[in-house]
Amino acid sequence: MSGYKKIAVAIDLSSESSVILDRAKDVAAPGSEIHLIYVQEPMDSVYMGVVPYGPVFVGMDEVEENLRTELRDKLDNIGDKAGIPKEFHHFLNGTPAREIRRFAEENDLDLIVLGTHGQKGVQLLLGATANSVLHGSACDVLAVRVYDAE
């Protein structure tokens, strides 16, 4: 096999992001497109059970926008260090697994690369996002095992 030509690398902006990117480069064909993806879950969906209607607190929109700017900068820094062109840095909003699968399908990608942490219980083999991406994607999925520093 000559390698994958169109790859999405979904990261969480943690220190393990470089490990996941390196693995994607290992399986990429020469001259391939590597798209770097980060998905921010809207704060109102995170706190939906706490306050079902309306913002969780006054000024939440401003806090979320400041966070979005900070996270977008982190994404760009990681992408720039990895040599990924800016047009392939993608900051998405929504449910991570759903957005990753949607992006891959809309862009006719060959491979999705993402990290998975060693967990206990039901998610023993894969994290929830990795599991959902794996079972709902039309293209190949590479789950890179990353370990939390303990």
Structural class: alpha/beta
Terminal CA distance reads 37 Å
> What count of helical segments does DSSP give?
5
What share of residues are in beta strands? 25-35%
Counted beta strands: 5
The strand line-up of the biggest sheet is 3-2-1-4-5
Shape: globular
One letter per element, helices H and strands E, the order comes to EHEHHEHEHE
| Mean pLDDT over the full residue set | 83
Low-confidence stretches: 120-125
Largest sheet: 5 strands, parallel
Helix content: 25-40%
Compute the CA-based radius of gyration.
16 Å
Structure explained in plain terms:
By secondary structure, the chain is an alpha/beta fold. The protein has helices at 17-27, 43-46, 60-81, 96-106, 128-136, and strands spanning 4-10, 28-40, 89-93, 111-117, 140-146. Helix 4 (96-106) packs parallel to helix 5. It starts with a strand and ends with a strand.
